[in-house]
């Protein structure tokens, strides 16, 4: 890609800041996630840059910029397409030699489902990448390249985890999307899906919508924040007269049966607050995932468990519930760790996979050496302010 001049022979250095916009997509059953790179400064060539670039056998230009993150509901995929079109994302991608369409990396089931739509609306040819490959590649990239990416959260306290790259593998990656996949990662490109469950984010949203009439996942999460699950959950104390079941190590506040209290009253659905129903549902799903994750880690002797996927959303109660479940079942020997960019693993993995594509004259990711993510000073109404953009560099032919 020639960054020096545009089609009219005019120097385009001044334009390169806003026009170097490459993207990758992860279109799931519930959400469509985008990762896109915008260059903000071109590195001047110097001996150090030239030597490192030429070490790969070719001379390449290095561009500094940021990786940005945003999402859309898959049911509103037209909004995603309009966003891409408005920002002219992908305009600098190469074109497929066979059909002259812009080539864009994509993963998830929607990459197949909406391929024709992207072709019709944007003239994109979606280059489909395997979903599990992308999840692992995205997680590995974040854990190796981005400082203060992984953290623990329990009892309201956040603590960032320093990742030792020499001792990263093996680990368990628990990706909570519409369903849940549990992946044992042994290295770059070395992984196995060892477990999973159909009770995931889609379950929470689906049942929550039926129970509360909420119109969005975020609305349901906010509603759960205001609820009290003890109104509908049967606790150990409800069974034992308000006391602990000490012999089994169960406190009186431990949940014996999610939604169990509803069977012993004459109330119907309309008699319960939607906030309490949402809280109970969130706790039920989160507890179940935390327990299954630990049991899977125990089966393979794994001490590190990383949770990703848009079910979490950085939601304090969700993270605390998962953390408590892992801590309880492991007797404190294992801990749940979360990722700041939890919902974008697949999209990041698809982006990183531009490294493996066979087209000439295209973008290649340069690994960010422990670069700390920083929040943008200003975010547009279309971008997610809660997801920090990542300062990084790319190099191109």
Automatic annotation (TrEMBL):
Gene Ontology cellular-component annotations: cytosol; nucleus
Keywords from the UniProt entry: Kinase, Transferase
GO biological process: coenzyme A biosynthetic process
GO molecular function: ATP binding; pantothenate kinase activity
Cross-referenced Pfam families: Fumble (PF03630)
Family annotation (InterPro entries): ATPase_NBD (IPR043129), Type_II_PanK (IPR004567)
Superkingdom field: Eukaryota
Membrane-crossing residue ranges in chain numbering: none
Record protein name field: Pantothenate kinase 1
The organism of origin for this protein: Cucumis melo
């Amino acid at each position: 890609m020639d960054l020096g001049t545009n089609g009219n022979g005019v120097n385009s250095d001044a334009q390169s800041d806003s026009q170097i916009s490459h993207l990758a997509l992860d279109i799931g059953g519930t959400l469509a996630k985008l990762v896109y790179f915008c260059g903000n400064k071109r590195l001047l060539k110097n001996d150090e840059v030239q030597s490192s670039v030429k070490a790969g056998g070719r001379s390449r230009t290095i561009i500094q910029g940021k990786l940005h993150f945003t999402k859309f509901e898959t049911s509103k995929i037209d909004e995603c397409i309009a966003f891409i079109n408005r920002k002219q994302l992908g305009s600098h991608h190469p074109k497929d030699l066979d059909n002259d369409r812009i080539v864009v990396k994509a993963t998830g089931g929607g990459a197949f489902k909406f391929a024709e739509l992207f072709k019709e609306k944007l003239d994109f040819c979606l280059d489909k990448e395997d979903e599990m490959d992308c999840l692992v590649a995205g997680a590995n990239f974040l854990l190796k390249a981005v400082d203060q990416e992984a953290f623990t959260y329990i009892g309201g306290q956040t603590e960032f985890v320093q990742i030792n790259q020499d001792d990263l593998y093996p680990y368990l990656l628990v990706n909570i999307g519409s369903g849940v996949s549990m992946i044992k990662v042994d290295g770059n490109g070395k992984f196995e899906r060892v477990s999973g469950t159909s009770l995931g984010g889609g379950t929470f949203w689906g049942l929550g919508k039926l129970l509360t009439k909420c119109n969005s996942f975020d609305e349901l999460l906010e509603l759960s924040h205001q609820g009290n699950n003890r109104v509908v959950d049967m606790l150990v104390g409800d069974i034992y007269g308000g006391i602990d079941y000490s012999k089994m190590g169960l406190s009186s506040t431990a949940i014996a049966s999610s939604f169990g209290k509803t069977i012993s009253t004459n109330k119907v659905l309309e008699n319960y607050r939607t906030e309490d129903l949402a809280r109970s549902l969130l706790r039920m799903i989160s507890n179940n995932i935390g327990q299954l994750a630990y049991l899977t880690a125990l089966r393979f002797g794994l001490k590190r468990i990383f949770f990703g996927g848009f079910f979490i959303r950085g939601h304090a109660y969700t993270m605390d519930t998962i953390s408590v479940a892992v801590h309880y079942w492991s007797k404190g020997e294992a801990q749940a760790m979360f990722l700041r960019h939890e919902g974008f693993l697949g999209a990041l993995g698809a982006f990183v996979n531009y490294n493996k594509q066979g087209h000439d004259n295209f973008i290649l990711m340069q690994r960010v050496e422990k670069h700390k993510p920083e929040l943008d000073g200003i975010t547009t109404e279309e971008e997610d302010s809660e997801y920090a953009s990542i300062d990084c560099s790319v190099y191109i032919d």
